[in-house]
Amino acid sequence: MISVKNISRVFNQHRVVDDLSFEIRPGDVVGFLGPNGAGKSTTMKMLTGFLPVSSGSIEINGLSFTQSGREALKIKQNIGYLPEGAPAYSDMTVYQFLYFITQVRRMPRTTRQQAIGKVCEQVQLEQVLNKKIEHLSKGFKRRVGLAQALIHDPNILILDEPTDGLDPNQKYHVRQLIKNLAKDKMVIVSTHILDEVAAVCNRVIIIANGKKCFDDTPETLKKMSPLHNAVTLKLSYASDISGLLEIDGVLDMTHTPGTNYVTVFAQPGRYILGQVTSHIQYHQMPVDMVYPEEVRLDDVFRKITLESNQQEQV
Amino acid sequence: MSATLTIFKREFASFFATPVAYIFILIFLVMSGVFTFLFGEFYERGQADLLSFFDFHPWLYLFLVPAIAMRTWSEERKSGSIELIMTLPITTMQIMLGKFFAAWAILGLCLLMTFPLFVTVNYLGAPDNGVILAAYLGSWLMSGAFLAVGICMSATTRNQVVAFISAIVICFVFVLAGSPVVIDLFQMWAPNIIVDAIAGLSFLTHFQNMAKGVIVLNDVLFYVLSIAVWLFAAYVVIEQKKAH
């Protein structure tokens, strides 16, 4: 278990991470979100022991980086980490680099080849195994970074923007990979792509200005959108729509004149699609189409982080 | 130990993965040849020894060693791989030592490659090969001290040029401390103890005996301590500055 208690990190008197606390248990796949400069990478650097905390404590499986060097090494042994930008030694070939990682991680000599073979299959690196890393494309470099994080089958995975620079097919593949790996591991993934969170994670932590402002499931995050369960209809021509507001469970309605699109918002936790369609049928309203709104996590994200910014300014 | 060896192997191989090692060795050999034969008057002296070769080593190292040391940490910082290596289950000291010994091995290799000189003096006369061996050892030890300074400077910055120049400046101070110019300058007014202390810190003074083949524990200890102190300083800098 990862237990983070009230950690802060100060750079030049600027609090990059401010009193952050959370716990992560096996099976958790945490999407770590936040605007640029919110403190995501800094938090990940502290979780991996690269940076010391300015205050607070991090405990990983009951061990802490501040204790003896031996314990710090023990923690690091259990972590697979993909740093921001997926750095690697570019003068080495992919094989040399991965072999080097197995050596530093003190994997038994007999299992090294097998581990390299397995991880290269997982992240599809076989075709570039003997190429120098500096000659690889951005997508391959990212996958080399993923491979070195996965090679020792760690029970904690910390990935800083793992799909950055990958094409849509590769993104899909990496997401599936993380999902499959996640069963009994603790995974923390930072990303800018909110769809990724919905696709991969079972928990979302949003931080802004170094503070936590959301920690729950992606479904709960979606529910925070005004568009959650909302219904949009397109009118063939202007007609009386005031009756829609009186439907049980409807909170509000917007009408964009000129386009004849009407969006009906639901009260929290209510489903209104059925009532809205029967209302349309009953009143024989001139409607071309009706569809339930897709929640855009981007909007919710904006709302949450902007609110946090405003609070900060107050 | 095995972790240090792993880092050593990687670093050593990386010198040869790029042209760095080849160019370095080539320049070292050309320069030492130029110094020995042109400025050292190897033939004109008419003596079967390598004094004219070793005498120039401090000045040769002054420029060449910072060149090989400058990438040690700067490159890790610049490429971000410092974050990778320091989150692996390995200590900073193990990384430091692995890097140091790898670069030091390159310097050792350079010295080994000057064997034609050794063959030449042995062909031309009957030199005291014990003296030559001692001088080689001394020279290698001294290069380690230069290297440790360079590694420490490299630890302070992500810019290799800054690391190179600051290492040259600091090495220059340590070489110059023992030169007649500085000694005379201090001798005019300072008590002997201070003059001795300044001269005692010089890379030059401690090498002079070794170049003549005299290995004194004092000198060996000085270089070993210099290496230890500068590497420890580099360690402290890395631990403090890795965040930036």
TrEMBL record, chain A:
This is ABC transporter domain-containing protein. Residues 2-234 form the ABC transporter domain. GO terms for molecular function: ATP binding; ATP hydrolysis activity. InterPro entries: AAA+_ATPase, ABC_transporter-like_ATP-bd, P-loop_NTPase. The keyword ATP-binding applies. Belongs to the ABC transporter superfamily. It comes from Glaciecola punicea ACAM 611. Keywords: ATP-binding, Nucleotide-binding, Transport. Gene3D superfamilies: P-loop containing nucleotide triphosphate hydrolases. Pfam families: ABC_tran. Signal peptide: none annotated. PROSITE patterns: ABC_TRANSPORTER_2 (PS50893). It comes from the Bacteria.
From TrEMBL, chain B:
GO terms for molecular function: ABC-type transporter activity. The chain crosses the membrane at residues 12-38, 58-74, 95-119, 131-149, 161-183, 189-208, 220-238. It holds the Pfam family ABC2_membrane_2. GO terms for cellular component: plasma membrane. It is a multi-pass membrane protein. Keywords: Cell membrane, Membrane, Transmembrane, Transmembrane helix. It is found in: Cell membrane. InterPro entries: ABC-2_transporter_component. This is ABC-2 type transport system permease protein. It comes from Glaciecola punicea ACAM 611.
